[in-house]
Specification:
The chain contains 13 helices and no strands. It is mainly α. The protein has one domain.
């Protein structure tokens, strides 16, 4: 049963990060809409979509159960805060010309997740998994050194989403009910901003063509669905495994960038991704039992402490 659950969690994780990796194709269809309005619509329509799912599945009782536990409510509130920080920082970075630095956050995030996995969750990693993490770190370091300065935006993005994932791992609530409460916390602010821009005559609802409006509404579905998959993955998998799956996202984004959006692919990119992809292969083989080694995470935790 546990083995089947792991496979299910792995599938959810792959689906979530694959969806996030190909989302640039969707956002390209909305490039005439200001990024802050896209963010607001994503939040609000995500809330609407999850509420519709709850009504259709008659799962309101699960939300009520979650609300009865003060600890759960606090953790869900923190989830909403950290995911908003993450999204807000990303939007600011894109609008302020920090696109490269923001993309680095996707590479740094798994390393933060690994740190949390070992020091907080005390997860056990074998020699091969540690080796894979070391190779991934080299790949990330190459990109960081090439950037030439401390990537503060990338660090905020990486740490905020890692903390979000950690809380999702710690909290034991239904994925849909938890996401409903998360979006309920920030949806009112998103709606206020949408209405404010509409009152100024600058909102998308009053000027965009019908197809664009449908895409904006659809942004709620493509935002909430991967988050539901991510929540399921964090409940079923070791947090360190969730972290390694993160590299699916930038890898797919890189493929889109090079082959679809015709962005340059430098020798630095090849070297960095070479280490990261090698790490992915080793970590995957170690997880399925092809590469076997004794766990020594307990020793690592003692050394850190």
């Amino acid at each position: 049963m546990e083995k089947e659950t792991d496979k299910t969690g792995l599938l959810y994780g792959i689906l979530a990060y694959t969806a996030w990796g190909i989302l640039p194709l969707y956002w390209k269809l909305l490039d005439e809409i200001p990024a802050t309005q896209i963010l607001a619509h994503r939040i609000f329509w995500s809330f609407v979509f999850v509420i519709v799912l709850l009504l259709a599945s008659h799962n309101w009782k699960k939300v009520i159960v979650i609300c009865k536990n003060k600890k759960n409510v606090l953790l869900i509130f923190l989830c909403a805060c950290f995911v908003t920080i993450n999204w807000g920082t990303y939007i600011w970075a894109v609008n302020s010309g920090h696109v490269v630095e923001s993309s680095m956050g996707y590479y740094i995030n798994p390393l933060v997740v690994f740190l949390f996995s070992v020091t907080i969750l005390r997860e056990k990693l074998n020699h091969w998994q540690i080796a894979a993490i070391f190779l991934a770190a080299i790949g990330v370091l190459i990109i960081t050194l090439q950037y030439g300065k401390i990537p503060w935006v990338a660090l905020i993005l990486a740490v905020s989403f890692a903390i979000y994932g950690l809380i999702k791992k710690l909290i034991n609530v239904d994925a849909m009910g938890g996401l409903a409460l998360e979006t309920a916390v920030i949806a009112p602010f998103a709606l206020i901003y949408i209405l404010f821009r509409e009152s100024q005559g600058l909102g998308a609802l009053g000027s965009a063509p019908p197809v664009t409006l449908l895409l904006l509404i659809g942004s709620g579905i493509i935002t909430a669905t991967p988050l539901l998959w991510f929540a399921q993955a964090t409940r079923r998998l070791h947090f360190s495994t969730v972290g390694f799956l993160q590299y699916i996202c930038p890898s797919l984004s890189l493929i889109l960038g090079v082959f679809v959006f015709k962005e340059p692919f430098t020798t630095i990119h090849l070297l960095s991704f070479g280490f990261i992809w090698m790490a992915l292969i080793i970590y995957t083989l170690a997880n399925v039992g092809v590469l076997k080694s004794k766990s020594y995470s307990d020793k690592l935790v003692k050394d850190i402490n």
